[in-house]
Amino acid sequence: MLAPEVVEKICTLLAGGRVSQRGIARSLRVSRGTVAAIAQGRRPDYTARCGRRPAGLDAPAGPLERCPGCGGKVHMPCLACRLRALRKLRRRPPDGLP
Hints:
Elements: H1 4-16, H2 21-28, H3 32-40, H4 44-47, E1 65-66, E2 73-74, H5 79-91
Antiparallel strand pairs: 1-2
């Protein structure tokens, strides 16, 4: 994983628009793929640092807890359990059908 300072420098240089992604990769000694992934927002651990966090995603708050539904250590409420419940509702046939 890259140091946060390197990620910040990549974001700053990308925002400046004067240096190519290849030039950024050479000067900071990282791969071009890493710079491209940060630029395109494909590195979710870096998007928040670059100011491109998707709307509706808040940072988790509080300590990790054991989920009573799946047993995983997560920030509550457990999103995995919520998604499973939604999928289960979608698969259920409408009322009156077998």
